[in-house]
Amino acid sequence: MLLRIVSYKKETQEDLNYCQYLLNSKKNLFFVVINQILLKKK
Fold it and tell me: Read out DSSP for 1-38?
């Protein structure tokens, strides 16, 4: 996980958390798709 940046403001922290959440979701989705493709090739 990305390191949490020391909060400047509560709003900024929430935005960062949301961006981090989106990044993690996209990464997870990416890995799931890659795994599906690899499984189909076997």
Answer: -PPPPPPSSHHHHHHHHHHHHHHHHHHHHHHHHHHHHH
pTM of the predicted model as reported, rounded to 2 decimal places: 0.47
**In Å, what is the CA distance from 27 to each residue of 18, 19, 33?**
14, 12, 10
- Each residue's pLDDT tens digit, 3-26: 555 545 677 778 888 878 888 888
Amino acid at site 30: F
**Residue 42 DSSP symbol:** -
